[in-house]
Structures are given as structure tokens and as C-alpha cells.
Amino acid sequence: MPAIRSKISRKPSRRTGLRVALLAVPLTVAGALAAAPADASPGPASLTCQGKGVDQTAKARHRAEILIHAPLPAIWGLHTDVEAWTSWQKPAAPMTVRRLDPGPLRKHSRFQATVRVPSAPPATVVISSTVQQLQRGKCLRWTGPADSAGYHIDGVHVWTFSPVRGGVLVRTEESHRGPQADPTSDMGLETWLADLKTAAESGRRGRHLAANAGAGRDRRAGEPEGRALGRSAGWSGAGWSGAGWSGAGGS
User: Over the Cα atoms of the chain, what is R_g?
Assistant: First the structure.
């Protein structure tokens, strides 16, 4: 899934460098993260999903993380409901996202983001993403190109979700390869994470969770809200034990 948030001026802008975060979007078309200087201290290990990560040879790479105080199933539901991204994200340019296949997001799922950049002249950027790896509630990786007239970037976007005491640590890393890849761009990842945090902590859910009885109507006596959400989404207890939740507010 690409992400989008940007503006094009023949090359992506710094903040919106076409949040092509491969629809990593929260759809904010982005630019790309720069590799650390040769004399910089080694950073943390690159993120992976089922053994696969970003393009380590790409000239643009960026990584970010945030702690979200909300149930893991709710966060996962928001993040994987790609067609609803624009309802809680703040793209820098008008954008639409559509799935190219039915059903819940899974390996080989495809989606496409179209961003209308108010440049002179106006430009339309199409970001086509394919899910390559997905482990429900744990990680997600997609790849795909962002294209416009005279513009092309190949992106890889990885997300991981780690239950910790009181919440979920969400990490993301993205790489961009191509003539317009911008090593100085943050790819809009911090903004995307902040928007996801705001949406999840305010109680928003992905459409799949909202369509179920969920914690509101199907919550068992004494059951933490997060576990009820997970059960309504079809998660097994083992798939979400250890999230550290003891009630709606976490532990």
C-alpha cells in the first residue's frame, strides 16, 4: 500500500515528497529517508515482516515509531482498512484509495492511491501497492511504484505492531528507489503515525470491526474492551494475549 501525502514540483517535496510511502498511507505521499552519513553510529536493525524488509540499497530510507494507547485489534483494523485511510488521515493533497480485490487485507492484496497534487501545472500521482507479507496483528509489508508524468519511484513499506505494557508500539520503515527519491524526506511517516494514534485512541475502528457486534453489544461480563474487540474481529485469545490490557484503558 503506498502512502501518499505530497506535492510534486518535478521532484517530491520534503514533507510530501509524495508520501509515496507506498500507500503506506495513511496515505500521505512522501519523500524518502536518507541513509545515515558514513561516520554516523549504526542505527537499530531494519524492520522486517516474515524475514523481509525495505530495500537496503535504496538512496532514500526512513524509519519512525510511536506508542499508541489503544487495543491492538483496533489499531490493526484501522491500519488495514485502506479505503478508509482518508477518513482519519490528513493528506497534504486530495487523495483517494481503493482496493483492487475483495475481502480483508491479506498477502497478495492490491490497492491503489490516487493523489491530485496542486502543482503548476496540476499533477496526478498513482501509487499501486501489493501486500507481499502479512502476519495478522504483528506485521505488514507492501511494495509498489508511484507514477506520474516524468516521475517514478519504487517503494517498500514495512510495519510492525508490538504489544507493550499499556499499549502497542507501532514501528514503520520505508525505502524509495528512483530518480526522484529524496534522501532528505521523512516520507510523512511521523504524521501518519500521529494520525493513527489519534484515531485509535479516540475509539475509531476499521469498518470490519465496526460491522461486528464488537465490544459494545457483544462484550462479555468483566471482559476487557480490547479482548472483546479482538474476539469480534475473529482473533483467537492466543493471538492477542500479552497485549497488557486489563480494561478499556490498558494496564
Answer: 18
75 within 8 A of 170, measured Cβ to Cβ: yes
- Taking each helix axis from N to C end, the angle separating 225-232 and 72-80, rounded to the nearest 10 degrees, works out to 40
pLDDT digit string, tens, across residues 85-138: 999 998 778 899 999 999 999 999 999 999 998 877 888 999 999 999 999 999
Q: How far is CA 8 from CA 124, 131, 149, 156, 173, in A?
A: 9, 26, 10, 20, 22
The dihedrals phi and psi of 77, each to the nearest 5 degrees, come to -60, -45
The closest alpha carbon to 3, from 107, 203, 140, 135, belongs to: 140
Give the residue numbers spanning the domain of 142: 1-37+44-205
Residue 227: name the closest of 159, 163, 141, 131 by CA.
163
Pick from 4, 19, 25: nearest CA to 79: 25
Q: Are residues 221 and 238 in the same domain?
A: yes
**Shared domain check, 87 and 70:** yes
C-alpha cell at 115: 493523489
